[in-house]
Amino acid sequence: MAFTSARDTRVTTDDVKGSGVLFSSLGLKQELLMGLTQEGFQQLTPVQELAIPHILAKRDVVARAKNGTGKTGSFLIPILQMVNPAKDHIQALVLLHTRELAMQTAKVAKTLSRNMPDVTGRIMCAIGGVSIAEDRERAREKPLVVLATPGRLQQLIDEEILNFRDCSIVVLDEADMLLSQNFIRSIENCLAACSSKRRQTLFFSATFSNSLKEFCDKHLKDPEYVNAMQDSLLLRGVTQYVCMLKEDRYKLKLLSLLMKHLKINQCIVFVNSVQRCEALYKSICDEFRVPCLYTHSRMSPEERSRIYDNFIHGQARLLIATELFTRGIDIRMVNVVVNFDTPLSADAYLHRIGRSGRYGHLGIAITMVAGDSEKRRFLTIDSYIQGQANSMIHILPRDPSEIPLDLYDASVVDSDIIPHLSDAIRPKNS
């Protein structure tokens, strides 16, 4: 969730700078405005300026915006403004494609509603990996807002644990993912369950495909289309680098150089497979004394949740991850992303590097390329993004410490919690 914060003094890029509209000018409930103020949020980002007035006017909305520019706030703030705690039925449903994103969004909702005691305790997160008995218990508390993944939501509807007949707001976040073959049937069923004639439907996505347009035509009523993409799919605060290597075996050595010579607050290292994820984690643990975690889709939901919480609370500077972690996850301390494996598609590349430079801050993304297959993929990616603003991919300097510190916000207050990664890493044989 990206807002302009009074407490964060780092450089803010233009893609999250709006025209200066203040939250205090929107006529929000005093308790909600207080929650925003306590988090240091004062001004709306461009997507919030475009979307929130239409949502408050109860219009269906389709919003396009880059990840990390405030999409989450664009729907949570109106939801918290419009829910009526005097009513005992579900009034808003937010659908999200991963449990991590659902948990993160629910946490933001509860934080912003902290001064709304009759609301914050009735925000329910329904995700796989949690006992259905726990969901039954929470359903008895008459939730007002439900944030859910499609599979668990389908189960709750089928077993009549939750009733969405009178739900008046439905949000699809990362709508392009939710309308993939993995989820489309569940999404159709969930929308059918939200049968109120007054239903307001909101779609948020960074990309807008033909299938998404067809779905909008079917399920939305005269929607307002807002586009905050500006001139590029790329976050303006991310500086991109590439390093061409002769062989794959040199990647680990390069990663160690990056960890030693860059001032890393937190770093996500992306790989293309579960096996690669576990192998790289073992190699790092064997060769370097560096706080490191890893996560992938074959882990249990409980394990993934624990690792996510540990990482966002600063228990490790380095996280090895697969594509599972590329969408929607906001960790504001991440200032470096490394593509240890060249992404399999341009879309994956954009979502990976978008884990840095969030909230309009600065970050760097470094892609390693080894072998003909990776070189072909990289050239395809480079060709795809050319012509967009901030599309230049620079050659990584031979000495990574030559990358200017002012490109990736190395000095922020949170860095005092744990030493910089470059100060912590020591080869085991030293």
Order of adjacent strands in the largest pleated sheet: 5-6-4-7-8-3-9
The CATH first-level class of the largest domain comes to Alpha Beta
Tell me which CATH architecture of the largest domain applies here: 3-Layer(aba) Sandwich
Largest sheet: 7 strands, parallel
Poorly predicted tracts of residues? 1-7, 412-420, 422-430
What is the gyration radius calculated from CA atoms?
22 Å
Mean pLDDT score, rounded? 87
**Percentage beta strand:** 15-25%
The gross shape turns out to be: globular
Distance between the termini: 42 Å
Overall SS class: alpha/beta
Assembly category: single chain
Tally of individual domains: 2
Helix share, percent: 25-40%
CATH topology annotation of the largest domain: Rossmann fold
Q: Write down how many β-strands occur, each being a DSSP E stretch of 2 or more residues.
A: 16
CATH homologous superfamily of the largest domain - what is it?
A: P-loop containing nucleotide triphosphate hydrolases
Number of helical segments with 4 or more residues = 16
Domain DEAD-box RNA helicase Q: 21-49
Protein name: Superfamily II DNA and RNA helicase/ p54/ ATP-dependent
GO molecular function, one term: ATP binding
Domain Helicase C-terminal: 237-401
Q: How would you portray this structure in words?
A:
- This protein has 430 residues and is of the alpha/beta class.
- The protein has two domains: 4-227, P-loop containing nucleotide triphosphate hydrolases (Rossmann fold), CATH 3.40.50.300; 238-424, P-loop containing nucleotide triphosphate hydrolases (Rossmann fold, 3-Layer(aba) Sandwich), CATH 3.40.50.
- 36% of the residues lie in helices and 17% in strands.
- The longest helix is centred in the last third of the chain and has 15 residues, at 371-385.
- Mean pLDDT is 87; it is low at 1-7, 412-420 and 422-430.
